[in-house]
Structure formats: structure tokens, C-alpha cells
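Task 17 of the worksheet. Students: predict the tertiary structure of the chain below and write it out as C-alpha cells. Keep your answer in the requested format; marks are given for formatting as well as content.
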Amino acid sequence: MFDPTSVVVGLEVGTSKICAVVADVTREGGFTVLGLGQAESRGVRKGEIVNPAELPELIRQALDQAEQMADVEIRSVWLGVTGAHMAAIHNRGKHLIASDDRSITEDDVQDAIRVAKTLNLQPHTYPLHLIRQQFLVDDQPGIDNPVGLVGNSVEADVLVVHGNFNRLQTSTKAVKSVPIDVEDVAFTGLASQLAVLSPEQKEIGSLVIDLGGGITEFTVTSGGIVRHAGVLAVGGDHVSQDIAIGLKVSLPLAEKLKIEHGSALVDDSIRGTLITLPSDNGLPGKTINLEHLRRIQNCRLEETLEIIAERLEEAQMFDFVHGGCVLCGGGAHTHQITRLAERILQMPVQIGRIQCVTGIPESLDQPEFAAAIGLAKYGSFRVQKDLSKTGRWNLKRALGELFGRTPS
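Model answer:
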């Protein structure tokens, strides 16, 4: 039995699945996955909860599986949130230095950050994550830590990841009704990049795309800092719906066809290939064209990746990405998805594998577990703070993995 004070649990309540990950954290920063539990999700559409009444039993099922595997009692979780209401904006906050000697203090820096945190946000919008990019002193950019410098003003450039407050509360209430405590919430897109990027990939610049069941998230990390993030309200379920409509089959059959015969690309070698579907009522089975199936899938995936490319271009993010793209989420299993992504994004693409983590091998090799493992890793920073004798400083260093570099 592990020390309960060193155990963290990440919980992802997704469109297709509910996933709980239990991990053990050491004072030295070690992170070991002890248990993993899953349940098929219901009552969630496009990453957002639409029927809370269906979830408590399913969440409990995933938590029970994780508890049994890890041999621990789960008391609280770090909850992932996502949805079309989530977005990221770049803000700049300015603070004038009032002291006689114009020396910039930590309080001055925090005042600039506070201005940047809420500037340009709409009503009912909650700033979930604040990620420092750089500071400016008297319009001089590129400063990591302005404390101690002399100037008339200090400005903070930040990336604010925000969401609708009421929708975030809906997610929290659904989990608390299990009942289970929620330590905090985090954007699952940030959690995914935290799980699949190595320190080298974070430094050189990498794009992470999480292809989920109802949502697609993307982040850009460069110089050890998350530079950009976004959400598309489209995922694997939409591919299945397109197939169901295009081939005139049921949605469950469309999902099965996608998994067993689908591909992100259409190959000339399959032209004329037919698939005979079994019939449940004794009548002859329906025949579908494999090329049509894959063309439908290709169109939706191609459109999704093109939208991401357009958004990155608009935000001028391609200049930050020198290490290529990492795909995770269930959609990363799609046949030839890396080839399609390489063609559209014009960069090397690989399937994500969990980084800097030990534990259950089967969970570390599956890209669909990236978000839940990343949520547990996010929660581990707080545990490391509690376990550490130097406390606050270690937490700041740990949070640097997610929010960006900590000034030395």
C-alpha cells in the first residue's frame, strides 16, 4: 500500500470514455502510474456534459477499476475540462512603477500580471490558466524576470486559457456528486502536452494535437513555454456520423467500419474493393465501397487538420515549431494519420508516447491515455510541494513544466 499523501489521480470525462489514472509521486519528482480505470462515457457531447445524471455511476466505475489496480483509496481527483467554450488569448498587462527609485519589485510584476489576466475577457469567462510569455520594461522586450531592474513601467505578456464559468462548474458538480472531491481543474489540451512531450521537444518547439471523440485540442510549446492553445468542436464521433450518413448505415456500424477498415488516406490500390456487411434479418448483406468509406473519413480529417493549420498561421505559431507534431488521443490510432498530418502541416509527425513516466506499460504505449496521465502529472506538482522541505520554490519549478520557465 502506498502513502496516500503521495498519490494523485487524474480524471478525464470525455465524449467517448471516462478515464482515471492513479500515480505515485516522490519527493524527488518521480512519477509512477499505479492504476488505470475506464468506462464508456454517456451524457457528454463535444467534450461537455449535457446530461449530468448519467455520469456518477460511470465515473465511479472508472475510479473503482483504478483503485483496484493501484490498491489505493481514491479521495480526490484532478479533473480535466474542455469544450468549444475553451479558448486561449494573448494579453499584455501594464503597470506603472510608483516607487521613488523606479526599482521593480515582485509586487509590481504581480500587478502587471493581474491586469493581463482579466484584460479583454468576456463576462462569465473564467481564466483557468495563466502562462507567462515574457516581460517588458520601458518597452524593452524579452525579459524573463524584471525584478530588480529600473524602469518607469513593467508589462507582462501572458497566454490566458479561459472557459465559461458555468460550464466549468457543471463539470465539477458532476464529479462531486459521485461523491469525490475535486482538487482543481485543468484544460485537457495542456495536460496532454504535459504527458507526451520530452523536455527536449518542449525546448525546440512542438505541436501537440489531441484527436478525441468529440473534440480536437492543440497546443504549441517552445522554449519550455506553452505558446498557444486551441479547441475544435469536432472529433472521431463526427467521422463516424459522416460515414453513417454517407454510406447509409447505422452509427454503431459506421464506428465499427471506421475502426476496422478506415484510413486517413485514400489509396488507388483499393479502387473497386467492396465490403459485404452481415445482415441481422436473414436478407442479403449490404455491400459498401471501401474507397467511399475512406474518402469520407479523409475529408473530415483533412478539414480538421487544415483548420488547425489556419489557426496556427493566424497566430504566427509555425515559427515556434521546429520539432514537429505529436498526435495523441484515440484518433491517433487512425491508419495513415501521420502521413496525412505531415502533408497538411508540412512538418514531421509522430504518434505520442508518454514521457518521463514509469508504471503500467500498456498505459504508456497508448495515446488515448495522454490526457488522463497528464492530469495526474499536473496534480503531482502540488504533491511535490507538500512533500518538499523547500515547498514553494519546488512547486514553482515543477509548474514551469506546464506554464513555462521559472526565473532563476
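Marker's comment: The radius of gyration is 23 Å. The first strand starts at residue 7 and ends at 13.
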